[in-house]
Every structure is written in C-alpha cells, then in structure tokens.
Batch of 4 targets.
Target 1
Amino acid sequence: MAAAARPVRSIPFASSSTSLLISSSRALPPAFRSSGVASSSPAASSMRRQLLLGVGAPAVAALAASAPPALLQDGAATLLTTAGAYALVRAFDALTERRLIEQNLSRKIVHVLSGVLFMSSWPLFSNSTQARFFAAIVPFLNCIRLLIYGLRLYTDEALVKSVTREGKPEELLRGPLYYVIVLLVSVLVFWRESPIGIVSLSMMSGGDGFADIVGRRYGSLKLPFNKKKSWIGSFSMFISGFLLSALMMFYFSGLGYFRVSWELGIGKLALVAFAATVVECIPVTDVVDDNISVPFAAMFVAFLLFGYTSH
C-alpha cells in the first residue's frame, strides 16, 4: 500500500489544468484528495492505475471531454472518409480480380467516384480553420500509398490492376498520383468556400472519367487532329463535366458555403467545361497527363470567371 501513496510525477506535455496526467492534487478525483483509508483503498488504487495508464472508461471520458467538439468532428470525418476511400478501391480491386468488371472500366469508375465522394464528404468536417487540413489527410495518405506501391517497396497487384492502364506498378506514379495531388491542392488551396476547386475536381473526375468510358465504347469517329480522342468522348466530357460541376455547386451553395447567381453561373460553367474539354482534346497526353492539364485548365478559367469566391 505504500506504493499507492507515492506521489505522481508530472508529464512534460500535460501543462494545462484539464490534462489527464498532472501532479497537482486539485485535478485528481475526490477519492485521491481525501486522506486515510479512502486514498489507499483498493478501489481508489485501481482508479488511479486506470487514469495513469490511460485505459478504462474514466480515461476515455476525460479525453473526450477535454477535446474541442470541432477536433472530434474533424477526426471522425477524417476516419470515415479515409475508410470510405479505401473501401471504394478495395471493392473494385475485388471485382477486377474476379473478372466481374474489366480493368479499364474499373479504373475509370474509381476515377469518377473518388473525386465525387471526396468532395461530397467535405460538409462532414467542422467550420474550424483546421478542418481543411484534416480533410487533406485523406489524399495525403493515398499519395503515400501510391508511392509505396509505385516504387515497388511493397506489392499490391489488385490495386495496380484496378487503377492502372497496363497493370504496371510504375503507372501508379503517373496518372493516379497526379489525381490525388490535385485532390490535395484543391482541398488546401480552395476548400469548400470557393467554386474553383469544386469545378476543377468535377471536370477531372466526372468529365475526363466519362469521356474515357464513353469514348472507348462508342468512339469510332476520331477527332481529325487527335486520333486518340473521339467526338463522342469529347462531347461526353463536356456534358458530364458541366452537369457534375453544376450539381456540386448546387450542393455546396445550398449548404451555404458560397452564393451563386445561376443566371450567370450556368454560362460560366459551360465556358469552364468547354475550356477543359478543348485542353483534353489537345494531343499532348505524352507530355502532360490529363489529370494535370484538365483540372488546372479548369482552375484557371474558373478563377477568371468566378473569382476566388462566387457571388
């Protein structure tokens, strides 16, 4: 019992009065402040061990109570979004492995859904200034993951087959990596208060994604200046990019993140979609990947037309 009465040493990082581990007796439960048998009883000693070890309901409750609500909300939103992104890729990994869906189609469906679902998750985060940084953890972790597998530090054949054209790990360091970098840039620079990032991600994920899906199946009539692209694919990019951009802007403006004058906004969105489609048609894919040229072209035109925030 003498060991139970030994004073608790303070932890360097626990400097505030709300800290769980603190040397001051004022912050301890009443059972520890009282003298005599109560302070050295088995129940009190057990509670003290739980608090010091950071386990048990009292420790969890104390940590939850001391954390700001915004921090808890952003942490939960990050975990949920990360789990969703991982589950999406894994689901199409499994479908590709079982040959229930062809590799190119799987790759482009993941391409479309990843950006759309990531943007759709942004309202889950709080209104605090650090919310965008929590959201940025999701594409950042994907960047690390792609680097690990692309550099062959670890092997994941299912992932490679579901998100690459030819099933080579090195491909992860090109289109897929550029894609998540654009997600990272959009969330850090523009976030949900600006239509620029929303429109550029919509054109990259929805526009470019559907252009490939439709063009591969029905694109027999090629563009005269780019035999790798088709008229129907380019038309699909314009329509799908425009519609997805309008839908996502309606979604975020309806939640109050910015205001849109739809009388002018529709025309501006059409111009952004047209500019992104023209850039996607240009035969420079061997030099600049579509996952770079399309979103950054959309960002530039959207900035000229909308400004940083829409009114």
Note: Residues 194-311 form one domain.
Target 2
Amino acid sequence: MGRLKTLLQWLFFFSTIGLAAARGRIYNLDVRRELKSPNSYKKLVITINGKCPGPTIQARQGDIVFVRVTNRMGEKVAIHWGGTQQIEGLGSDGAGGVAPRPISPGKAFMYRFTVHRLGKSPYSSYYRMQTEDGLHGLIDVLPPYGMAKPFAHDYDRSIILDDQYYKSNYDRAAETESLLIPGKGKFDCTESTTPSSHPTACNAINPEYSHWRVVPGKTYRLNISSVTAQSTLSFRIECHNLTVVEADGHYAEPVQNLVVDSGNTYSVSVKANQDPSRNYSITTNIVGQNATATTPTPLGLAVLSYSPPAGPIWNYVTP
C-alpha cells in the first residue's frame, strides 16, 4: 500500500507538470537527532540532511514543490511551511496534529504545495521545542523565469536568528540561555544548567562565530528570519545602515537597529562602505530584557570584515 501511494503521488506530479506551466521542485529531507555544539555546548540537536539549520527549499513563483520528509527520530514530526499560502496544498499545512498529520517515527510523508509569495520565509516544526532544537530552515521563492528581482544588489545572504536552551523540553519557561547567528554562538559554560561529565561538552575557549566577508563598495541583501521560542530580537551591524526593502510589502527608512519577532522575515539592503581595515560586530539581543538581571542572556555575535586586497590587515601584513 505504501509503495502504491508513493507511485500515485509521482504520477500525479508528472501529470500536473504536463498540464501547467509551472515547474516541479523535488526535495528529500532526512530528519534525525545528532550530537553537535552549535554554540560551544555539545548537546543533541535535530538536523535536516545533517545540517542545522536545514537546507534551503528554493523554487520560482508558481512552481509546485514536493518535499518528502523522513522521520528518523523517536518522536512525531510535522512541518509548517511559513510564508506559503497553501492554496493548492490540502493536507500539507494547517492546524498542527490535524493537517498535516504528524509523521510517526520511521515513517515518511510527501508534502505538496504551490509557492506564490516572493521572498524568503522560515519553515519549522509544529512542535515548538523541535524548532528550537534545530528543525528549521528557509524557503526561497524567486521571481518567475525571465523576471529580475525588484531590488538591485550584488550579493544575497540569508540569516536565521535563534535562541537556545539547555533544560528539558518541559522546563524552558526561564530566560533564553544563548542566541545564535545563524546556528553559531557562545554559551557561558559557568551557567550550565545541565552539567555533563564529558570533558569537551562545553568549549568556552574556542567558541564558533559566523564570520562574513564583504567586498568594498558592493551592496548586499540580507534576508533575516527569526525562529525564536519566546524572544523578540534586535539585529544590528556596527556602523552600517540597514535599509528595509521587504517586510510584508511595506517599506521603511534606513535603520541601524532592526527588531524581529519570531516567525517574521525582513530583507534589508546593506552597503559595504565603511573602513575596510577593521572588523565590525554583528549583534542580536533580546528586546526588553532586564539589563540588571543576575544572568542576562549574552549577545548573539557574528563578525563582518572586508575582503582583500582592501583589507583587513592581519598581523601587520597586507594580504
């Protein structure tokens, strides 16, 4: 019965492609738990095809997307495709646990939907703590073939903001313990709420940060999404203005500090027009957090630098 159902799905797929001008996009996502250290602290996270965050689902406006999700975990899974209207995707999105139905351990399910809205938006688990454990990624909807993007830029980069906890799924009402940009950050090992006997469980000496290089004079489009559990985050790049070019069809004046709620996505334009000989911090912080708290959540941190030959200069040697 399972093979027959899969065969019928593929037959429907090919018949759909033959009847419509849209193209079909096929993805296979393998979901499992693996031991990784996204922010200096080694723990079990959820990976998609071995990655955390998962791979980007890319299609063009009007395409039909087929995503086969295989659940390799010991718990049920259901995925919400953020930003998709699901006009022709009956059973592929909706109320969690009802539509789509959860995927049982060891089983697979084929999601099918047509993408209409341009831009990038996050996909994530219907079960919030699975999202926090790494079950999330991006959907990237490009203009139809022959049409250019509405805003000119030289390079494009996607950023997922995330918050992390180290308690059990039933004990996460407290403050966020660290922030990731994207998928990397630092955790204060002295504040560990789940001590481990593993000697390398927490690496406070060599934490991993995202490091992005830009070319002087170029314009970058950053697609910033948030999948936090309960935090509204600010986002800024030191000394660089962020011009919002896409946010639910609205536009705004240049800002230096962007506020992003969970589930939201903004596209911002950034000009690489600062001193190329130094590095610049990229930070995210919890909006409204009590700065005098005993153990405030540390800043999420990444680094921006300018590419050679203009800079930066390391150890007084020009690259």
Note: The chain is about 5% helix and 35% strand.
Target 3
Amino acid sequence: MTGKRRALIVVIVAAALVAVAAVAYAGRFLGDAGATGDEYRLESPIPPSGAATGTGGPGASPAMTDSSATSTSVPPEASAPATPAAPPVPRPGEDTTGVPAGVTLTAYTGPLRITKAGTVIDGKRIDGCLDVRARDVVIKRSVLTCGDIMIKIEQKTANLTIEDSDLDGAGTGFVAGYWNFTLTRVDAYDIQEGPRVGSNVIIQDSWFHGMRPAGSDDAHQDLMQTNGGSNSTIRGNVFDATSAVAGVSFNAAFQVGAEFEPLENVLVEKNWFNGGGYTVNIRDDPEISNVLFRDNVFGPRHGYGAVSRADAPGIIWEDSNVAESDGKPVW
C-alpha cells in the first residue's frame, strides 16, 4: 500500500468516528423517534411535599454538597400570631334598650304604691319612685324618673316585669328590686347604683351605665349587687361601671356575696362587664353554691383586675370569661 492510500484510510476512519460521536451526543437531547417526550421532561423546580432539597434551593439536587457552603435561600419571615378575638356577646345600647322609637309618652297619674294585681303601665312618664305590693305588675315602654330607691318590692311574691323602658336615676337614684322581678331591654342611667339581685330575678338584654358618684369616699358603689338569694339569671347585658368624671371610680360592676342569706343557683352569662376596682368582686362567704360565670367579656377598665376570688368555694368560673382586648381568660 502506498503512503498516500494509507493516509486516506486514516482520514476516512477518523471522520467516521467523529460522526458516530456527534450522533450519540445529539441523542442525549433529542431522543429517538419513538420517544414520548416524558423521558426527557425537565424536573419541576418545586419538589413534592416532603422531598429533599439541596443547598441550592428548592428542587436542587441533594448530591455533592459542600459542608462549608452556606445556603443562599432566604427563609420566610415568621408571621406574628393573630390576636385571638373575644367571643361575640350581646352589646345592648341606645338602639336596643329603653323606650322604642315612635312611642308617645303621656303622664302617669296612677298611684306610686301599686297594690292591684295585674296592673299594666304602658307608654307613661312616671315621675316618682315605685313601691310594688301586688303580683304580676307590668311596666313597659315607659320612663321612670326617681332620685331614690327606684323600685321597691316589699313582698317576695310581687313578680314584677319591666321591659322596653328607661330607668332615670336623676343622678342620685338606684334601681334596687331584690326579689321576683324581670328586667328586659331596660336602659338604666344617671344612677348611683343599679339592681339588687335576690331570689327569682331575671335581668336580660339591658344596659346599665352612666353611674354618678355618691360624694362619699366610703360609698362602695356597685352597679349590680347580690347579698344572697337563689334561682336568678343575668344574661346578655352591659354593665359599665365607669365614670365620665376624671379620677372617679366605683367598687364593682358586680358585687357578689352572701351576707344576708345563702347564694345559690345563679347563672351569669354572655354579659359585657367594665369598670370598678375589681370588675366582678366576689366575697369569700361560706354559703355560696352553684354560682356559674361563663361566656362573659371584660372591658379594659378596672383598678385591680377583672375578677377577685374566682376560685372561691361555690363559684364556678369558666375559662370562657375573657378579656375583650385579647380573648384570653381573665382568671
């Protein structure tokens, strides 16, 4: 074989080898004619939940990591936990309590000492304090103005109902009551003290506010108070024992005790309480049993705390009694 022919064969063989290599290299990207394309699809940059990720960020290969390398991914900022909201409770006010809009009041000319059973007073402006001594008396859609004891129930069988009415204390009055009465959608204001809760009392959907100072440092004014009694329900009311006068504070929105007789079987639920030294001030009296507080919300105003002695014997205080500000239990 001549030298020229030998050189030509070498060139042909080299060219063939180059062609084969080129075809193989191209096949890595193009695949064969029968491929579906799935075999060559790029991996998603977002790994499946729980899949390992490398230091290069989500989707990077976990292989061949350098222990001295620092991750370039930036972790998301932690979100501040949301402030839990206090559970909604009814907030009776000027639109839902007192004399309904459109009622025309006329002067009440009947007796202030009521002795006739079944007496109904409707749509009246009552100037004076009531002394109820009969059963089944109803006062509705009326305004009672009294600067002393607004409602006296001398007999424990009186069974008085007051609804959709205003109780105006004229700056010096207090609601009183004591036994066997129901207050529904009542607006009580400009008072030194509110209702006294004895036995068989229902106070619901009402608004007690606008307390006035008694002018004595030892007055110990309470917006509502019980000194004993049984079978009463306090539900869905606003008790706002605050003053618009700077520097004036009151003893409690609800003073709870059993000084005069045992206190038992009382339900206090879904109210909004505010103000006082302790908003709910509970005495450590021995004859208290089955007094349940639940689902009440406490406003921001108090001198010492929302409640005192919530763990006193006979008091059932649930964690559902919470602060309006953060929804957390107040005890």
Note: DSSP finds one helix and 26 strands in the chain.
Target 4
Amino acid sequence: MAHSARRDSPELPDFSLLKRLVRDQLIYLLEQLPGKKDLFIDPDLMSPLDRIANVSTLKQHEVDKLYKVEYKPIISISDQLCFLIRPRIRTVKWICDVVNADKAAEKYRRYKIIFTPQKFYACEAVLEEQGIFGDVTTDEWAFYLLPLDDDVISLELPEFFRDNFLAGDQRWVRTAGSALHLLHSLFGPFSKIFGIGRCSKMTYESWREQVEEGEQKARQAEIGNVFLIDRDVDYVTPLCSQVVYEGLVDDIFRIKCGGYLRSVTSGSVEKCSLRLVYGKKLVPSETEFEFL
C-alpha cells in the first residue's frame, strides 16, 4: 500500500489502531492470571511481541521473568506459568511434559496457555490425552495483523505457505478470513474484493460468513479495493534477486518483523542491536558497509 504524493489522495487508515487493540487484549489475558507470573514465549513470537508490548509493559502487568520456549525442562520457580505460543502440537506436548513433571514432584502451580492467533481442537485433544486438560486454562490472543509502517501490515504467519500450499492443510484459511474481517470492522466496508486462486476464494468465503454472522455497522469506508492473490500464482518472484539496499540487508541479515539484528563489536564485547527497516528510510552506515 504505497501512499500517493498527490494532494487529493485519501489519507491512509490509522493502522496503529491494530497495535493498540492487540496490546490491550494481551494485557487483559495476562491480568486473568493475577499475581506475579513467568511468561514463556514461542520463539516465532519474540519479534512481533516486541513491536506490540515491550518488556517494561509486560512488567507493569506482573510478568516477573520472560523465557523462550526451548523444549527442555524449565528452571522457573514461580507459582504461576503463562505460555504464549503458536497452536503447534509439539509445543503443547512440551507444556504437558512440564505440567506432568510438576505433578510427579508434587509441585503445585497455576498454568495458562494463550494460543495465537487462534487455538485448534487438535491442541486441546493433546491436553486431554495427556491428562492435564483440567489443570490448565486456555485462551486465544487474536493477533492477526502487525503494523510494520504507516502503509505496511503483515499477517506474520510463517506456517501458512508450507501448510496450505505444500501440505494441503487449510486450517489457516479461517485465520486469513478473520484478519480480513478485522480490517472490514475497523476501517469500513470494502468497495470491491478481487481474488486469484483457490485459497483466495476460500478466504473470501470465510470473510463473508463472518460478516454475515456479525453485527452490521454503517461507517465511512477507509479502504477501497482489496486484492487477494494466491502464492502459487507466482512462485518465481520471491526467488529473484533484490536489487535494492534493503534487499541486500535481507539477504545477509534476514529482515524479520520489520527489523534485523546486527552484531557490533565494542572493544572486546560483541553486541547485537535491532535496527528497524520500516518507519524511516533505511540508509546504510559506514559500519554496515564494512559488514556487507
């Protein structure tokens, strides 16, 4: 969504509203587990979460320590554990191991699992099979879209391509439809929706179902046309060389969630600093030219 320089062009929607909504929802979910708690975060969610709610924000809502999910025994001594994860079977089984290990050690804790962007029946079935369904509480964090810049938003759903186009698993179509419905609810009705491909059609149908089920509110439209294009329409373009500086940074440092980590040696200490790509023009510095 490139912002036109013409004076008569419409203003861009305020996509920062998306960030405020998901931050408020996350805070609400964390406060449902009152008191100090340790938070275990799925590695894929570390970068997006940093764009939504930083460490100081989490600390204000009684998050004591933060850990990355590493699929090994935990070292937390907190009486309350909260897990912020993608709905993956492997991660749910690891949580079951943590809870069962505490049971074997006769250690009582409270557990809460927050699935994002949604929870699946398969995950709840694993909890039941492992005998801990009644020991944990589960919730959904509807984190569908992440604003990276004034005119760039991202679904941040790395599994979508592999699951849908390679494995034929269509479970994420509903998620894409929900993201479309969120935009429709916040920024008014779309003038027209154009789609190319089977997945685009299913996403459109999912969105239509949610619109018909929900409450209709008249509001001014801030988004005109929507274009849905399946990835399998063009597999080649993502493999082409990126002939801009930002593309070179992506090839070497890997841009993720609108930023990249860069190692800087200060004396004898090597530090990693996060530089954001969006929000301002990316201009190479002398030190980055040395890296490149």
Note: The chain has a mean pLDDT of 84.
